[in-house]
């Protein structure tokens, strides 16, 4: 917790617990900073007093992934967003990942945080966002609600950005299951080109070891069960690991094996980002939500222990 006027780099800290599960939530980005079950890490965490590395655990809204060149059109008007991925010239991961979200409810097993997306050049829409992180004995559930607070429709997409880990062995030995049959192909700048059947090298519809596979790709055509649920799983050699559960309103997944991460984060975790829309959705409109004034859009995810 903060002391006096001194606060950690990741903002006010909240720890929520139930049974053997503990989740540490950082106010900056409403981020899942650490998640442990019986002392075992389920995600690659980070210290409270560092600048959050590589969007670990952050909430991504009002769009996930990239807007190419930061340019998109709306009702005949050209919009231009600030570019925060300068090496590729793109606008990345929305507008709230570096906000310090405000707590509205804090309980032993849950915390609710809010922030506002104010209209600005490139995104002239008003949204109120609320996320509730709730733990139980073996994991954490996140429920993100976006409410239209302006006078016009607001285009919207979202995701979370956890880096999943297994407790034993290197990443190459971990068994990954991604129940998705198509992938979004991109060029070297991550500009989407087209959707195609998932390549054999990237096909994890049958669980298998990651090996030397390099992933930084968006997938779709996900297998959902009758209740509209699905899951990505990551398991070590001892049968223990982590799963992230998603629902039908997140029909896209970005999977990233942390190959471009420096230092001790390099190939140390698998980022699994369930997204409501694909990269470039503000421009393409694909699976983009339109939130009317006074209406809300809800998305939920769950991260839990395996074994």
> Which regions have little confidence, pLDDT < 50, spanning 5+ residues?
none
The fold-level CATH name is: Beta-galactosidase, Chain A, domain 5
Average pLDDT for all residues: 96
Residues in helices, as a percent range: under 10%
User: Number of DSSP strands?
Assistant: 27
Describe the main β-sheet briefly. 9 strands, antiparallel
**Count of discrete alpha- or pi-helical segments spanning 4 or more residues:** 1
Q: So what's the CATH class? A: Mainly Beta
Q: What integer value in Å does the Rg equal?
A: 18 Å
Distance between the termini: 31 Å
What's the shape?
Answer: globular
> What's the architecture, going by CATH?
Distorted Sandwich
Q: What count of domains describes the coordinates?
A: 1
- Provide the succession of SSEs: EEEEEEEEEEEEEEEEEEEEEEEEEHEE
How big a fraction of the residues is strand? over 45%
Find the structural class using helix and strand composition: mainly beta
Which strand order do you get reading across the main beta sheet? 10-11-12-13-27-23-22-17-20
């Amino acid at each position: 917790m903060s002391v006096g006027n001194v606060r950690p780099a990741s903002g006010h800290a909240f720890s929520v617990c139930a049974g053997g599960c503990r989740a540490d939530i950082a106010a900056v980005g409403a981020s899942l900073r650490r998640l442990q079950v019986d002392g075992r890490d389920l995600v690659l965490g980070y210290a409270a007093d560092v600048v959050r590395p590589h969007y670990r655990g952050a909430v991504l809204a009002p769009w996930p992934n990239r807007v190419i060149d930061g340019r998109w059109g709306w009702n005949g008007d050209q919009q231009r967003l600030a570019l925060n991925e300068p090496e590729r010239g793109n606008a990345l991961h929305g507008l709230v990942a570096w906000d310090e979200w405000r707590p509205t409810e804090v309980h032993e097993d849950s915390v609710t945080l809010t922030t506002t997306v104010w209209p600005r050049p490139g995104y002239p829409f008003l949204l109120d966002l609320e996320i509730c992180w709730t733990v139980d004995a073996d994991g954490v559930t996140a429920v993100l609600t976006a409410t239209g607070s302006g006078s016009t429709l607001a285009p919207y997409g979202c995701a979370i950005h956890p880096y999943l880990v297994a407790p034993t062995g290197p990443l190459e030995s971990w068994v990954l299951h991604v129940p998705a049959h198509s992938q979004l192909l991109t060029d070297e700048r991550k500009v989407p080109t087209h959707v195609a059947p998932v390549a054999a090298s990237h096909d994890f519809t049958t669980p298998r070891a990651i090996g030397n596979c390099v992933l930084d790709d968006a997938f779709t055509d996900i297998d959902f069960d009758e209740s509209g649920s699905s899951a990505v799983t990551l398991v070590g050699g001892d049968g223990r690991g982590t799963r992230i559960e998603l629902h039908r309103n997140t029909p896209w997944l970005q999977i990233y094996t942390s190959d471009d991460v420096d230092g001790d984060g390099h190939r140390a975790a698998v980022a699994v980002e369930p997204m409501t829309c694909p990269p470039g959705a503000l421009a393409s409109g694909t699976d983009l939500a339109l939130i009317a004034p006074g209406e809300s859009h809800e998305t939920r995810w769950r991260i839990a222990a395996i074994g």
